[in-house]
Amino acid sequence: MNSLKLLQLECSPRGENSTSRHFTHHLLPAMAERFGRDIQVVRRDLGAEPLPPITAEYAESLVLPIAEAKSRFGAALALSDHLIQELDDADMLWISAPVHNFTVPAVLKNWIDLVVRRDVTFKTTENGKVGLLQDRPTFVAVTSGGAMFREPALQPDFFRPYLKAALGVIGLKDVTFMHATGLAFADEPLSVVETKAEQWLREASFRRTIPSIA
Ligand SMILES: Cc1cc2nc3c(=O)[nH]c(=O)nc-3n(C[C@H](O)[C@H](O)[C@H](O)COP(=O)(O)O)c2cc1C
Fold first, then answer.
1. Ligand 1, atom 17: nearest CA belongs to which residue?
2. Contact yes or no for 61/73 (Cβ under 8 A)
3. Per the structure, how many domains does the chain have?
4. How far is the CA of 175 from the centre of ligand 1 (A)?
5. What is the pLDDT along the chain (214 residues), one digit of tens a residue?
6. Which residues pair with 98 in a beta bridge?
7. DSSP letter (8 states) at residue 122
């Protein structure tokens, strides 16, 4: 059986001290074992090597019909084309990210701005935007310093609704969030993350996601 291709986006600037990376490092091998397939990982470290900010040419190109955009701004679209191809080649998407100011880190937002493209990854219709990419399982390992993702809310959650909307608009609807929060109050945040990972791996929701990959 062919191996599964997984595109892994790392979004923390904190390198090996990163809690969200640690969360992923703890979860991914166990999940790979449960999928029963070899996993070929393409890793993009947005935290260590942020993508360049979008340019005026790129922004101009987004409002043009695709043929004109390519002929006038082809070079300015090259990075975006490459990132979209990289995403489309993947059977699964995996994102490790901290919460930054109630939402996704800027490096992830930048990636989103480069892959959400009219007439390439979504089209506009009279009923709104419709994704053009085939859906695929997407896992998001997210960590935060304070209390997030709980009721009653102590901080607004612009992370999950935003990411769901941004991925959904290009066709990625099968999104699973795994979180470890309140890490600023933990003496040993990395071991809290490990405990959360083990707990999450035991959850039935994880098993439900497997058939969509198999
Ligand atoms: C710029 C910045 C903004 C942050 N904003 C929030 C926030 O809004 N809510 C929160 O709970 N934690 C916030 N934090 C804390 C991080 O989410 C927390 O430290 C997380 O564990 C970091 O993950 P990492 O180790 O993978 O970078 C923020 C941290 C930084 C650096």
1. 144
2. yes
3. 1
4. 21
5. 678 999 999 999 999 999 999 999 999 888 888 878 889 999 999 999 999 999 999 999 999 999 999 999 999 999 999 999 999 999 999 999 999 999 999 999 999 999 999 999 999 999 999 999 999 999 999 999 999 999 999 999 999 999 999 999 999 999 999 999 999 999 999 999 999 999 988 875 555 454 444 4
6. 143
7. E
Alpha carbon distance 55, 17 (integer Å): 32
Range of the domain at 34: 4-212
Please tell me the distance from the alpha carbon of residue 124 to that of residue 214, in angstroms, as a whole number: 31
* Alpha carbons 81 and 59: distance in angstroms, whole number: 14
Question: Residue 147 belongs to a domain with what CATH number?
Answer: 3.40.50.360
Minimum CA distance residue for ligand 1 atom 15: 145
Distance CA 186, CA 3 (A): 38
